[in-house]
Request: fold
Amino acid sequence: MKTAGMVEAERSVLSSTLASDPTVHKSVLERATLLFRLLIAHNFQEECRTCGWLELLNLPNSITLSRIGCIPFLIWVLSSSMFPSGKQELLAAGIFILASITDGLDGYLARKHGQISSVGILLDPMADKLLVAAGLILLVRFTPNLMPPWIVVLVLGREFLITGLRSVAATEGFAIQARNLGKLKMVLQIVAVVAVILAHRWYEWNFFGFIIGVEFIARIAVWFMLFVTLLSAVDYFIAFWDRVDRSARSHHAIKPAAVRSTPTA
Reply:
């Protein structure tokens, strides 16, 4: 990728070339091409100076975008019939786990290198919701006995509810911080999706005589995920209502004081 210095050097060379004797160029097409390259170089430099859009493609934001980019591959693997049984589940679980790991990695790198941006704040939760929603919806078709549609509706309904409450909070001028139950909910959703994917192929694993009930773990994970998801929605709604109530009380307390301080004629 060109830097601003490289662009400036290219501009100088192209400008001097265009200012030279026109007989140097064998056709009008060559001069038009040079003029177009000069215009692109100028626009690129101005964009770097005014908008700073190159910062949008920093490492944390690129990792977040890669999480979104994993979703089509997950859909393809779980929807395709070209993979043999066993390899399909392992590949899908690997893609989902890899994408989930980037959830913590991008935030860590953004805080460590001071690259927190408004675009990253917007993309990160959106990437999480897209990844989980894609996994849950696919599992309704892939393993409906372990992931019934009504559970997916409740989980996604919670996400829509919280998103709506955050929008209302933003319009009222305050924000609700991320709750610990919300973070636990995200972890349980990842565990539940991976466990259900593996349970599609294996009922249990036998490790040197130690039996691991894959399907049992999947069922427990799904129900625990649902419980924590609904509990986190209630917790977030209580926090939201508390902030709204305090905001209304402070507003009513300020209004009478302002009326008393108004001078009379």
